[in-house]
TrEMBL record:
CDD domains: HTH_ARSR (cd00090), PRTases_typeI (cd06223). It comes from candidate division WWE3 bacterium CG_4_9_14_0_2_um_filter_35_11. This is Helix-turn-helix type 11 domain-containing protein. Signal peptide: none annotated. InterPro entries: ArsR-like_HTH, PRTase-like, PRTase_dom, WH-like_DNA-bd_sf, WH_DNA-bd_sf.
Length: 325
């Protein structure tokens, strides 16, 4: 039996195995084992999980395309899928572009051509909502939710999710950047949106910026890392979140009035300076209560004459609860 087949048979019997186990089992050098494992991973026979020094190998249940792209039918819009498709598997593997789309379809037993056509149609449906800055105007959503809107303008950089295909590229990255506290994903988001935000700031003549602070304590805070990565050369208005006996994250509240009450009692703008236009940035707009109450405070304290809002993602519908982030 070939060494590669022995490796696959052993892993199938154990469920998973490390390179060290395989070296002992096969009785060959670790260098030879790693060479075999690399070839098997590249050919889609095995998948890796974990990170050095704790890496384990499993037999892949899904065919993958690594070195050779699949034959693409003439009627498939390859560039659109290559640019937009992004998916993180349950095992934490990033699958993106056309190859990632193929794997996504295969795992769900979906026809590739029809799925590709549907994906293109849905992307085109949502494309019309983006303005010249590459931003989505969220003011209609806010006016349908609140009796009084204190933001002069509000936008998000992408929808959090779309029908059938789930979370968008930014939606996927945002979710797992926060949940896994992954600095690389945060940096990726910043790289993707940096130019749009800076162009917006320049065009709108924004002279100060503020970032909505998190409620949930994490070792790596998304918004702090995001602010650092954006590196906006503007004065930063100090916005703080104060705690009560129990910290209640907005995402746990399903009623709009509860979210408004929560924002009123926890968000404080602690600044004495005065600016003309202040931009406040958040990670995701669910109801929008936090952004709206922050804008109200900025104006009432005379810190800003106009307040603009931008978030990484937002929901397509009116009042919505994005509970995952």
């Amino acid at each position: 039996m070939k060494t590669s087949k022995k490796i696959i048979a052993y892993i199938l019997s154990k469920g998973e195995a490390s390179a060290f186990e395989l070296t002992n089992y096969l009785g060959i050098s670790s260098r030879a084992v790693f060479k075999q494992l690399k070839n098997l991973v590249n050919n889609g026979k095995l998948i890796k999980k974990g990170a050095p020094p704790r890496v384990y190998y499993m037999v892949s249940e899904v065919p993958v395309f690594v070195n050779d792209s699949p034959q693409i039918p003439d009627n498939i819009e390859y560039p659109i899928i290559e640019e937009h498709f992004f998916h993180i598997t349950p095992t934490g593997k990033i699958e993106q572009g056309f190859d990632g789309f193929v794997k996504w379809c295969e795992k769900r037993n979906l026809p590739l051509e029809k799925s590709a056509q549907d994906y293109k149609s849905i992307l085109q449906k949502y494309k019309k909502y983006f303005n010249e800055f590459g931003l989505i105007d969220g003011m209609k959503k806010f006016k349908s939710s609140f009796a009084e809107v204190f933001l002069n303008e509000v936008y998000y950089l992408d929808f959090y999710s779309i029908e059938r295909f789930g979370k968008t590229k930014l939606g996927q990255k945002l979710l797992y950047a926060k949940q896994s506290q992954n600095k690389k994903l945060i940096s990726d988001i910043s790289d993707e949106v940096n130019a749009r935000i800076k162009n917006f700031i320049k065009t709108k003549k924004v002279d100060a910026v503020g970032f909505i602070p998190p409620t949930v304590k994490r070792e790596t805070q998304f918004i702090k890392e995001f602010a650092r990565s954006l590196n906006l050369k503007l004065p930063q208005v100090k916005i703080v979140k104060v705690g009560n006996e129990v910290s209640v994250p907005q995402k746990t509240l399903s009623k709009l009035e509860d979210r408004i009450e929560n924002a009123k009692s926890t968000i404080v703008v602690d600044d004495q300076r005065s600016f003309n236009i202040v931009l406040i940035i958040d990670d995701a707009i669910g109801s929008g209560a936090t952004l709206n109450e922050t804008a109200k405070s900025l104006k009432q304290k005379g810190i800003a004459k106009k307040v603009l809002g931008v978030s990484v993602t937002g929901s397509f519908k009116g009042f919505d609860v994005i509970s995952e982030v």
